[in-house]
Amino acid sequence: MQIKSKVREIEEGVEVSELTFEENIVCSIEGLDCANCAAKIEIQLNKADGIEEARVDILSGKLILSLSGIADKNEVLQKTQKIIDKIEPGVKIRELSKEKNDDHDHDQGEEVSLHEMLKLIVGILIFVGVLFINKSSVFYLPMFIVSYLLIGGDVVFRAFRNILRGKMFDENFLMTIATIGAFTVGEYPEAVAVMLFYQVGELFQDIAVNRSRRSIKKLMSIRPDVAYVKKGNEVQEIKVEEVNVDDIIVIKPGERVPLDGIILEGDSSLDTKALTGESVPMNVTVGEQILSGCININGLLTVKVTKLASESTVAKVLELVETATTKKAPTEKFITKFARVYTPIVTFSAVLLAIIPPLIFQVGTFEEWLYRALIFLVISCPCALVVSIPLGFFGGIGAASKNGILVKGGNYLEALNEIEIAVFDKTGTLTEGSFKVTQINPVIDISKDELLEKTAYVESFSNHPIALSVVKEYNKSIKQEIVSDIKEVSGHGIKAKVNSDEVLVGNARLMEKENISFEASSALGSILYIAINKKYVGNIVVSDQIKKDSKEAIKLLKALGVKKTIMLTGDKKSVATSVGKALGLDEIHAELLPEDKLNKVEELLDSKSKRGKLFFVGDGINDTPVLARADIGIAMGGLGADAAIDVADIVIMTDEPSKIVTAVKIARRTRKIVWQNIILALGVKAFFLVLGAFGIATMWEAVIADVGVSLIAILNAMRVLKK
Question: Which of 57, 170, 206, 425 is catalytic?
Fold first, then answer.
């Protein structure tokens, strides 16, 4: 208020608005292996003051908090820990540093403790032993109670603790009520067996979750901790976070590239598998870009750093993979909500099943119907659904990353199943984005070699991609001292003197401006017209090359059910039409400005069906508005602009259009496996709920069915990673 009044004193009529800001805090969340508890924590945190959004990712062991307004970070973290303590005591959060996320430093919660395992084994041995004891023995019941407490004591403790806090209807509650009920009706072996099988199921769940976590930690190994920086004649070992842009680093054979840069000295082969999924090494030489995360196979390289550690390719890749599982697919969100409603309904149904038939309809005894109700409770546990669905999507994201495709969330992976319209940029997306001389056409007494030489000498003073392609085609040393009077004519071309000859290189407008008679070419590509001493001597055609897999990618997308394939480009119509026809695209729109592309995508979004999705693929800064507006934005990440990669929902690290087809296939396989789990879990549960209600199924059968479904669903979910 003081600020507002002071401003009004100085300049009446000026209004001051309070702006809110958002800050993301990333924490490790240690000791949390229950997906149901993770969902509860997320719900409560999203209701807390000062937190704009909270996302709990059980698979990567991360909690991401978006703070808004003037919230104090330390207060929010304290409040967060208190909320977690109420729901799941023992679970601890720890803020991760922005530089390294501290992933190398902790492994808490990764494995089941030796103490817990020992308790379970002793409990099992006592349980097996008591099965051979006579029922009349004085040790019969006490041994069952001891084995029950050793095997499931922690489950009972959590259930009663949650009840005291007003938190009911979780899996701990279901198992405790079912097993204590079984003891009440004298079914001691079944009570212990239910708890044993439940704990075995939880053990397998923990193994599956920890295996997924380890796959993320394995990925972290692609980020080197140090770089070897050259300072004068010395090479010093420095932390990657302390290396600056333009520093010179040395990378020995066998070392991982620590930072993005340009090669100054040396030739080598790079293993790019961690970034691109490609097993074939990539050869690199002086002047070429090198990306962090690759392995230098056989040559000593001297590299000039072009990006800080926080902005490097490997940092972006790790950030994308780490946060991908926090963006839940619609199916995941539905299952989480379903489980929250489903458990109370089943619990009340079990109570009604135990009370109504014996008391109202006077059918059978109360003990008989109570037993049936307990079976009903055992089979109702939603663990198979709550755990296997997120695991399925995590597996899909992991399978995509192994193929050089970074999907930023399960929601985008699921959306790939509904693609109707595929829209592509041209340059750098369907074409290589690197120009190449395709024709050299002399017209009078001059050879091809001489025409190329004169043009290369003039173009050697330009950094334009077309000029660079001419110099590359010439591929000989250029004596720039013989070139003088260089003058760039904006939008037309270049004038210069090569020895005593005046050479003009440019477009048709340059020839017209200089009143030089020439013959216009209809060749496809960018045409350089050349005149020497005011006389037209020929032209050179420079073209962008179509990527080798572009045509196959379009063909396969159509085979997968994409209804329309469209190209939007700023290039001239003749070039765009030629490329579009060669690739078999349905529509071609050329000579578009960035806003024209955006308007065209808006029209296409209006034309698709309600469920259908549109994806746009691009690589340049000018593509970012369209990438953001499309249902799914796909960026070519190998050499694409950072802005495009940041905005996109999916990043193709190899720059290959055919990887989009791979992504769609992975998405469909993931959805198939997820729905297999949903149908299996609900189908088996419904079947045994009916059998239990009619007294056909025993508790043994119910618990084996429940644990069996959970294990099958988890193993099925992990199958996505294997493909």
Answer: 425
Whether the CB-CB separation of 252 and 135 falls below 8 Å is answered with: no
Cβ atoms of residues 679 and 354 within 8 Å: no
Phi then psi for residue 194, to 5 deg, are -60, -50
Q: Does residue 122 register a pLDDT over 60?
A: yes
Query: Cα separation of 115 and 489, whole Å?
Result: 80
In degrees, rounded to 5, the angle at the alpha carbon of residue 337 between the alpha carbons of residues 418 and 195 is 120
Q: Which two tokens stand for residue 193?
A: 């067996």
| Pairing outcome for strands 564-568 and 587-589 | parallel
For 591-632, what is each residue's pLDDT tens digit?
Answer: 887 778 888 999 999 999 988 999 999 876 667 788 888 999
Task: Please indicate whether residue 649 is annotated as part of the active site.
Answer: no
Specify the 3-state DSSP secondary structure of 167. Answer: coil
Angle subtended by helix axes 188-220 and 383-402, to nearest 10: 20
Q: Regarding predicted confidence, which is higher, 370 or 381?
A: 370
Please give the share of the chain, as a percent, with pLDDT higher than 90: 24
Mean of the pLDDT values across residues 123-143? 90
One-letter amino acid for residue 325 of the chain: T
Q: What one-character-per-residue DSSP string does 534-554 give?
A: TEEEEEEEEEEEEPTTHHHHH
Task: Say what the pTM is.
Answer: 0.67
Nearest one of 544, 524, 529 to 442, comparing CA atoms: 529
Q: Strand 289-290 and strand 282-284: pairing?
A: unpaired
List the end-to-end C-alpha distance of the chain, in Å, as a whole number: 61
The reported pLDDT for the residue numbered 105 is: 41
Helix axis angle for 658-693 and 383-402, nearest 10°, is: 170
For the segment 559-601, what is each residue's pLDDT rounded down to a tens digit? 999 999 999 987 778 788 888 999 999 999 988 877 788 889 9
Which DSSP string do the residues of 641-698 spell out, in sequence order? -HHHHHH-SEEETT--THHHHHHHHHHHHHHHHHHHHHHHHHHHHHHHHHHHHTT-S-
